[in-house]
């Protein structure tokens, strides 16, 4: 099983990061693409704009957000992007611009990827 971790996109690459994939739908504000140390950007695996706006990064809504997001991961184009992440060899670092990574879609995504056969 691939090791999956979550980091903020502005964190420097560390030994053991492996493949670094930005999983936000929108490019991080104030970060030049040339300055982002990432290997890929899979915006298709991010939550829909509607779900993201409903959530509003409110920790009180996190459990319901996580449930809805997992359901979205079963639908295209997210399902194909998720499969692509599952095919990544070696360690995988999911990058997000979200300040609260513990209550983020990237954390949900890491849990999904770390749990065999679940979405």
From TrEMBL:
Descriptive protein name: DUF488 family protein
């Amino acid at each position: 099983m691939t090791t999956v971790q979550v980091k903020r996109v502005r964190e420097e690459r560390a030994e053991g990061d492996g493949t670094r994939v930005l999983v936000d739908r929108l490019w991080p504000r104030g970060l030049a693409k040339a300055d982002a140390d990432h290997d890929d950007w899979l915006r298709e695996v991010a939550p829909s704009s509607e779900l993201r706006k409903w959530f509003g990064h409110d920790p009180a809504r996190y459990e319901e957000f996580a449930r809805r997001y997992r359901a979205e991961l079963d639908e295209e184009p997210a399902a194909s992007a998720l499969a692509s992440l599952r095919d990544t060899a070696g360690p995988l670092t999911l990058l997000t611009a979200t300040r609260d990574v513990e209550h983020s879609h990237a954390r949900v995504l890491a849990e999904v990827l770390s749990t065999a056969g679940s979405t």
